[in-house]
Amino acid sequence: MSVLSVKGLSKDYRGHRALDNLNLEVPRGSVFGFLGPNGSGKTTTIKILTGLLQATAGSATILDCPVAINLDRALKRRIGYLPEEVNFPEALSGFEVMEFVYRGAGLPAAGARSEIVRLLDHFNLLDASRRRCASYSRGMKQRLGLACALLHRPELLILDEPVSALDPEGRREVLELMVTSRAHATVFFSSHVLADVERVCDQVAVLNQGRLVVQAPLAELLRSYTFPKYRVTVRQAPPPELLAEIGRRPWARQVDPGPDGAAVFTVEAAPEISGRLEEELLPLLIQENQVVTSFQREQPNLEQIFLDLLKKHHQNGTKEEAGNAASLK
Amino acid sequence: MLLLLSKDLRQAWRTFRLPALVLTGVFFALLEPLTAKFMPEILAYMAKELEGLAEILPQMGPLEALTSFCGDLTQIGALVLIAIAMGAVALERERGIAAWVLTRPISRSAYFWSKYLALLIGVAVTLIVSGALALAYTATLFGPFPVGGALWGLLFIGIFLMLILAVTVTASSLLRSQLAAGGVGIAFLFIIFVPQLLLGGTAVVRYFPHTLAGHLSGLLSGMLEWTYFLPAALITAALANLLVAAGAFFFQKAEL
Fold this sequence. Notes:
The complex is a heterodimer of chains A (329) and B (256). In chain A, 38% of the residues lie in helices and 27% in strands. Chain A is built from eleven helices and 14 strands. Chain A has a six-stranded mixed sheet with strand order 6-7-8-3-9-10, sandwiched between helices. A four-stranded antiparallel sheet of chain A has the order 2-1-4-5, with helices on one face. In chain A, helix 3 (94-104) crosses helix 4 (112-122) and helix 3 runs parallel beside helix 5 (138-151). Chain A is elongated. Chain B contains 13 helices and no strands.
């Protein structure tokens, strides 16, 4: 069952399409990574979902409630949101900000102090809690923003680049917090730090130039979008004919010759028959008088998939544009 | 609403916006009676040097002191108010604070009204503190005098400033720049006196908001009754609140 559902969402800014026909389904209890390079439309999507921007077309629902500009207050009570650049009323102290959020959420006054202190302590802000927010560093503001997002125990956490300003320790703690939060909340967060996403997410969507490139469970993505890759180092740069010959073999899906004159190249195995590559590539190289100094299977990761997907998306986009231009002629 | 109002009042106090407004009023409350008291003496001293000046010297008394004080509030006070109010919403939008606040379970209309009311409370405090000070100081320097007209005058100035505040806060919410909002406020402060130029001397002029600021000397001197200002006061107050209500309505659908 989806906690967040997006159908055909588009957003135009002064003639520029920032978001183009986006479709998403975020399952309940998942940690959902929303990926994309800078300017891909992640923040625009999040701003539409939190009622700060009006979509040009399409619709979305959060917790079965329709999303529109200026969300219903009852729905806002069920969402915890952290913006990318978080800024608080600057004359208030960290404690006062938390108090404001607590009272604004309509929570019982009885437990306010202890709950606020607990969260401030958890995010290492207790010592600075009487200081004005204006004097906080970016990392402190981000931690306070996270504490505010969690204070009212929301069912859905929407976090825009939640660890971008944190040090490695703070980053690890927040990522762990996201994983533990899934017991009572769904986490939807945007990031371009792929290692973080790979560490905590079970669902991933990749956005590029305002368009959805892929949405899938992370495990499925790693399985379907990666093929075993072998990195071969030889003593001297191999002749292009040899690389072309390798590329023609049925077990080789793709050969990446590496930079010009390099003695390293990568061979991507065809699906299901990577074993044959392992059996036949080395004998072939020896037969062609190549001295192999290293032969290594590369571990596929999300970063690789991400970059490949973006590359293909760019290529498809270019072809599409060329096609459109041709049809116009 | 009370939660937002207490936050906005605390903010306005700590960022020196409220104290700046009150201090402006206090400054003129102390300056004008003092000027009225000693200006004749200074001029008389100069008159010894310049023959014939003594004959044309104006008579200065509590009326002149309070008229000048009211004039300061409706001119310099209004400008300071515009400077303080122009960032009320625009600055928070610019810095992303409005977006953060409004993703909490808080209504946009409460947010908007709270900004307006916090500054309106600031105007009221300024008028009460500076008005009391000006009356007390004038009485100390010149002796007792009837204060009824001055009290009505302070109320009408409050209503006049309410409209200036409503225009500036509404502009601050509709325009993305606080400078633009300030520009609208200042332009309005000039435009508001246009009816005086076009309709001055006619009976309808008392229905326009500028009457509350421009005809105060008549009220203070007793030439005009407070009832003369009632139509303008009611129209101005209604206009201010309608403007804020319209601003709150449009702010509901504003992109942040």
